Amino acid sequence: MTSKTTGTESDQLSVSTDQGVVPQMRADSDAAMADEALLGIEGLEGSLPFPLLRRRSGVYTRRRRIPYVEKFPFSPLPVGVDADEMGDETTNADESVSDAGIPFPTPIPTLPLPQRYRYGTEELRVDVDGRAPTMTISGVIPGGLFTRRLTWIARVKRTATGTYKGKIFYRDGTSLLLPQTQVEVALNPVLPIAPLNAIATFSGGTAPTVTRHYGFAHSHFREVNFEFDTVSDAISVTSYDTASHPNRPATLPAETLTIESGYGHMGIKVTRSGDSIVNISRAGANTLWSDIEMHDAMQVSWSKWANIPQWAVWVLFARQHETGPSLGGIMFDDIGTAQRQGTAIFNESFVANAPAGDPAPAAWVRRMLFWTAMHEIGHSFNLAHSWQKSLGTGWVPLADEVEARSYMNYPYRVAAAPGMTPEQRFFSNFQFRFSDSELLFMRHGPERFVQHGNALWFDHHAFEETRATTVTPLELVARLHREPRFEFLEPVTIELKLKNITDSPMVLDRRILEGDQISLVITKKGEEPRAIRPYARRCFAPDDRALMPGESLYASMFISSDVYGSAIDEPGEYAVYAFLDLDEVDVLAAPLTLRVMPPTSRAEERIAPDVFTDSVGRTLAFGGTRVLDRANDTLAEAAEQLPDRRIAVHAQAALGAVAAKPGKVLEESGTGEKRVKVQKPDVPEALDQLGAAYADLDVAADTFGHIDVTQQVMQYAETVKESGDAKAAGDIASSLADTLDARGVKPSVVEATREKAAELSG
Amino acid sequence: MAQVTVSLEDGFAQDHVVIRVDGFTAFEGTEVTTRLQTGLAAAVPVQTSDASSLEVTLPDRGLTRAIDLDGSRTPFVRASIVDGDLDVSTTDQAPYYA
Predict the structure, then answer these.
(1) With A96 labelled, which of A149, A285, A541, B78 sits at a CA distance of 20 to 30 A?
(2) Which residues of B fall within a CB distance of 8 Å from A388?
(3) Do A388 and B36 touch (CB under 8 A)?
(4) A697-704 vs A726-742: helix crossing angle, rounded to 10
(5) What's the gap in Å between the CA of B20 and the closest CA on chain A?
(6) 3-state secondary structure at position A747
(7) What percent of chain B has pLDDT over 90?
(8) What are phi and psi of A730, to 5 degrees?
(9) Cβ–Cβ gap B39/A384 under 8 Å
């Protein structure tokens, strides 16, 4: 029999597509049993009351329709809450509620945005029967690009009505996705005559009760690929006949346990990939293995090697580690960023030496080799030794299990008994299993903790994972041409670069980086992400051009504030995420981290509330104003009081830019009549302000960025020329060219600036 | 003379460790750290006599334990830090790790 994975169209019955929620169901009612046969999980379990009742533990799923823009604050949904419109049955239907059961806040005015959707799969993980049930129900609710998926876990008890009910005691991710505190699950049907399904009712807390329907997907809790490679001078042991050694529990089923079925019994479905032989003939005299050598061998020999999180493990059967025969095996892969992907078992080690007088020495050795393999692979699931559970930061508070009869305990470390060595006592009641706390972790722990190659420290993991695993024809970079430390009050402008990384020309809108397809999100450490909604979006006629291989487009983005207020203001660390929404794929930039330094004077602290206002933000974003007098007053005050700070450079540039040229101003007369008036330039004032702003072009290039400083300084030079001093204008442009050249700007830009300088001088 | 293997096992974390045999320093290591996959930080061979005094010290933690041993009968010493205390014991069985 074969086992299918979930999510294929043929597996699903569309139950309520109009509601955006599709419980996923297996069409074949034997699905659970098929899975169990493959997993080695017994279908008719002694813990079930009647032989006709089938095992119902496993993963149930439903699909969720998730609005594509739900993450942004301009959506009417609270940040982080995915929406399944009318996807749940709620107890107070009159009230508008989100999928999580939270009343929607009053919508704020929004700009019309096209609604786009993607689908995510929500899981309900039921662990109440079968082998070693932990009486746990957990779930995974998918997050968005900038919201973390939620893993929740509840310990449950069977109720008098046959449902399973318990409190949700653990959450990892965006808690708002499930604010209720209790879950009660009904599993249907009891008899093997129809597809399994689950109805979960979430209640408690301040949110309304919601009920969700799930279809049975599969019996296993994880699916992982193992590859067994064997060094040419070693042997591999991947199975053990549980009846072959007389020292065993009387209740231990007699079977040939394989590594696959051993993990299958634990709810972990194992697939295998191309086992191979590692030829050691060229290794010379030293055929012992170091960790680094094994890590290198893994990258060469393992068909699935990738330095990313994946449900896959490489198992190497080798002769001996360089430590010597005292090391029976090791999960050697604590090297690099994607760890826990490689393990090794050494057959020429202590596990090969049965104790003198053992009644079945060959079986003893085979059992130890099998135990070692299961043990090392257990480490790759992030399981600690039984006596180490309380060390470090556990995913939940854990107690040491020094006497556990678990694959993760050392048989020779438990307490001895009269007439029995520790190892003899261990195997006398070892059921070839993991402990309950280990099963809870493997079956229900957040994927990021359990999955091989994943890492606890992956900040903004969902975004990073998406970026790392998405292959796109374009490379998007968000960058600065300076140290990423900004003075307090200093406006932040970043540069975006979009490069064609294929071998073929690509046709793109020349201003694609300035339109709606670009989105920016900023997170301040420890706070929710917020999208940047610029004060203005430009709508250009399409201007397609061929972007040649290796060629790039550039744009600058002012990100200090937007229509929602200040985005970067308080001191601290910020991460800026940029992505380009192409029709086929999103192009994601690596996050750009920057830091805002604390204020250095009382004067900065005093003026900060006036600078971090909508009017000043708009003025700085647009490069000046003729109508927002209060903003101009604040900028003038900043320039005067903080002459050595970079806010003064921005203030002078903005004040000088509007003073340099005539500009139209809409005025309203006393009778309500609106008319356009042209405000005359004040060239002396402009020259004063701009001269101060661009006195140090290196500082100006730092704080405005290369794109903006080039544009602004050339305008300044034009103003100087119009004032009658062509030589000075040429000198300014020439100095700018020198500055850009020194900062490594593209030669073509430097050359164009020099040509402009010559033109101004002439 | 007999060779004794001193296994520094659980609980070491960037520790300065000194092992003395009969008052003489036989081993001094810094940043001794238990590798959690194996429960072993270091296995240190030292030479002893049939009746030696072996002392394990972590000066930065103020921990010291001394034991008397007969290296020919119990050639293995295991040292761990358990609940903040240094636990040192002898055995004739080679300790194993996995």
Answers:
(1) A149
(2) 10, 36, 39
(3) yes
(4) 60
(5) 23
(6) helix
(7) 82
(8) -65, -40
(9) no
Q: Which residue of A has its CA nearest to B44?
A: A323
**3-state SS assignment for residue A48:** coil
CA distance B97 to chain A (A): 5
Give me A254's structure tokens. Answer: 């007699």
CA distance A286 to A406: 35
Interface test with B, best of A323, A326, A409 (most B CBs within 10 A): A326
Contacts of B76 (CB under 8 A, 6+ apart): B4, B5, B7, B90, B91, B92, B93, B94, B95
> A756 vs A707, A718, A736, CA distance in Å?
16, 10, 11
- The CA distance from A740 to A731, in Å, is 14
- For the beta sheet containing B42-48, the strands, ordered from the edge strand earlier in sequence to the opposite edge, are B42-48, B2-8, B76-82, B85-91
Is residue A346 classed as helix, strand or coil in its secondary structure? strand
Amino acid at B44: V
A101-111 residue pLDDT tens: 444 333 334 44
Q: Which residues of A touch B (CB under 8 A)?
A: 323, 326-332, 334, 349-351, 372, 375-376, 379, 384-385, 387-388, 391-392, 410, 412
Residues of chain A with pLDDT under 70: 1-53, 65-119, 144-147, 190-192, 282-284, 336-337, 393, 455-471, 526-529, 537-542, 583-586, 674
- Taking the C-alpha atoms of residue A330 and residue A317, their distance in angstroms, rounded to an integer, is 11
Phi, psi of A405 (to 5 degrees): -95, 80
Please give the backbone phi and psi of residue A500, each rounded to the nearest 5 degrees, phi first.
-80, 110
Q: Is B87 on the interface with A (CB under 8 A)?
A: no
Q: What is the pLDDT of residues B21-54, one digit of tens each?
A: 999 999 999 999 999 889 999 999 999 988 899 9
Q: Which of A326, A372, A385 sits opposite B94 (nearest CB)?
A: A326
C-alpha A676: how far from chain center: 51
* Half-sphere exposure (Cβ direction) of A422: Cα atoms closer than 13 Å: 14
Cβ B98–A384 below 8 Å, yes or no? no
Quick one: pLDDT at residue A145?
58
CA distances from A703 to A610, A708, A734 (A): 20, 9, 20
Secondary structure of A198-245 in HEC code, one letter for each residue: EEEEEECCCCCCEEEEEEEEECCCEEEEEEEEEECCCCCCCEEECCCC
**Please, which residues 30-69 of chain B have a Cβ atom closer than 8 Å to chain A?**
35-39, 43
CA distances from A26 to A8, A219, A319, A684 (A): 10, 12, 45, 79
Whether the complex's predicted ipTM is more than 0.90 is answered with no
SS3 A153: strand
Q: Cα separation of B8 and B22, whole Å?
A: 19
DSSP A616: H
Token pair recorded at residue A692:
């101060």
| Tens-digit pLDDT profile for residues A281-313 | 766 677 899 988 898 888 888 988 887 889 999
Residue A327 with chain B: CB contacts under 8 Å = 38, 96-98
Q: SS3 letters for chain B? A: CEEEEEEECCCCCCEEEEEEECCEEEEEEEEECCECCCCECEEEEEEECCCEEEEEEECCCCEEEEEEECCCCCCEEEEEEECCEEEEEEECCCCCEC
Amino acid symbol at A207: A
Q: How many CB atoms lie within 10 A of CB A457?
A: 6
Phi, psi at A650, each rounded to 5°: -65, -40
CB contact under 8 A, B96 and A375: no
Two structure tokens written together for A545:
């051009």
Sheet holding B52-58, edge to edge: B24-32, B15-21, B52-58, B63-69
CB < 8 Å to A399, chain B: none
